[in-house]
């Protein structure tokens, strides 16, 4: 058997060739690359305007700035940590006027978009798991009504595009129930993901030998008890890898909610492109942020699988 290091070397050469091909292709494009703009849209050190929230007169004493309200004498605003002042002692300012600036680290729109993507994905997953579990149990139920309802739900959701479902949730169901954009987006993602989780749960349950159920029933367990204590623990452990894949798909699918004006990572990238006219750099960065997120989740799931495997052993 040849040394595995040789094949690692082959892999390295292939990746170097791929990177070289991409770099060579980028040089043939008539485009000015400006990667220096991108970091400011993730994390930047900049000045932020500090605005007054009352109308009043400015008083400056030993570097301490106060705005004394003229409409309400008890209304006083104090500013002790401004890096620069844009007003002078005795100035009369209105609500919303800039008093000064304060320097510090600011999270950029791409980072905020990533946070929104995480919020969407986590919330959708929290709702999708119980939906998928119930539908999966319905798929293997002996009750014809439960089985048919679960099958209808799964086939209906899996047979229509997620983008169409998002539009239906936002424009129809959202209008009827007065749902916000965020709620409609989370609901659409949860219902969509729940259908796929249902099939994963069904496959996991059916992979357990029927003798397990028969043995549990022979010990005096009811069907629900046998399913809860014997079948589901084994089935859910077997379904961990496909569940992890579905979570990764959910994170990528969440990019579609940008069509209903939710500022997730994809919409934030589009807004940055519109303001910088640097589409290549921004979209490569957005792709890298998605990749870092999904790769990190894959690594965590892999470690969890290994931990469970050691526990079984």
UniProtKB/TrEMBL annotation:
What Pfam families does this protein map onto? BPD_transp_1
GO cellular component, alphabetical, reads: ATP-binding cassette (ABC) transporter complex
Membrane-topology annotation of the record: Multi-pass membrane protein
A GO biological process this protein is involved in? amino acid transport
Which CDD domains does this one have? TM_PBP2
Q: Does the keyword Transmembrane apply?
A: yes
Which keywords describe this protein according to UniProt? Amino-acid transport, Cell membrane, Membrane, Transmembrane, Transmembrane helix, Transport
Q: Name one GO molecular function term.
A: transmembrane transporter activity
Sequence ranges assigned to domain ABC transmembrane type-1 in this UniProt record:
114-301
Where does it localize? Cell inner membrane; Cell membrane
Q: Which InterPro entries match?
A: AA_ABC_transptr_permease_3TM (IPR010065), ArtM/GltK/GlnP/TcyL/YhdX-like (IPR043429), MetI-like (IPR000515), MetI-like_sf (IPR035906)
| Location, primary (coarse class) | membrane
Looking at the UniProt entry, the stretches that span the membrane are: 6-25, 110-136, 156-179, 186-205, 282-301
Write out the function statement from the record: Part of the binding-protein-dependent transport system for glutamine; probably responsible for the translocation of the substrate across the membrane.
Tell me the protein family, please: Belongs to the binding-protein-dependent transport system permease family. HisMQ subfamily.
NCBIfam families (UniProt xref): HEQRo_perm_3TM
Q: What PANTHER family does its record include?
A: GLUTAMINE TRANSPORT SYSTEM PERMEASE PROTEIN GLNP (PTHR30614:SF20), MEMBRANE COMPONENT OF AMINO ACID ABC TRANSPORTER (PTHR30614)
Entry protein name: Putative glutamine transport system permease protein GlnP
Protein's organism: Abyssibacter profundi
State the organism's lineage.
Bacteria, Pseudomonadati, Pseudomonadota, Gammaproteobacteria, Chromatiales
């Amino acid at each position: 058997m040849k040394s595995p290091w040789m094949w690692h070397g082959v892999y390295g050469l292939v990746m170097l060739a791929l990177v070289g091909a991409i770099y060579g292709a980028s040089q043939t494009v008539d485009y000015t690359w400006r990667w220096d703009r991108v970091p400011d849209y993730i994390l930047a050190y900049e000045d932020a305007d500090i605005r007054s929230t009352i109308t009043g007169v400015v008083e400056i004493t030993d570097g301490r700035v106060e705005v004394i309200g003229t409409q309400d004498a008890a209304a006083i605003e104090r500013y002790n940590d401004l890096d620069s002042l844009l007003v002078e002692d005795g100035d009369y300012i209105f609500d919303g006027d800039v008093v000064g600036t304060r320097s510090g680290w600011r999270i950029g729109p791409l980072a905020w978009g990533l946070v929104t993507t995480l919020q969407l994905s986590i919330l959708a997953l929290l709702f999708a798991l119980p939906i998928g579990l119930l539908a999966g149990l319905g798929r293997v139920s002996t009750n014809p009504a439960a089985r048919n309802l679960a099958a209808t739900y799964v086939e209906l959701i899996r047979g229509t595009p997620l983008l169409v479902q998002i539009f239906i949730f936002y424009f129809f169901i959202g209008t009827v129930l007065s749902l916000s954009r965020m709620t409609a987006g989370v609901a659409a993602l949860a219902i969509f993901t729940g259908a796929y989780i249902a099939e994963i749960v069904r496959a996991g349950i059916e992979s357990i030998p029927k003798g397990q159920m028969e043995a549990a029933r022979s010990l005096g367990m009811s069907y629900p008890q046998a399913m809860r204590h014997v079948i589901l623990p084994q089935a859910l452990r077997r379904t961990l890898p496909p569940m992890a894949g579905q979570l990764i798909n959910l994170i990528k699918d969440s990019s579609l909610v940008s069509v209903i004006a939710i500022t997730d990572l994809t919409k934030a990238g589009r807004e940055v492109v519109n303001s910088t006219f640097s589409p290549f750099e921004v979209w490569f960065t957005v792709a890298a942020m998605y990749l870092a997120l999904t790769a990190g989740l894959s690594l965590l799931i892999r470690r969890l699988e290994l931990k469970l495997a050691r526990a079984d052993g």
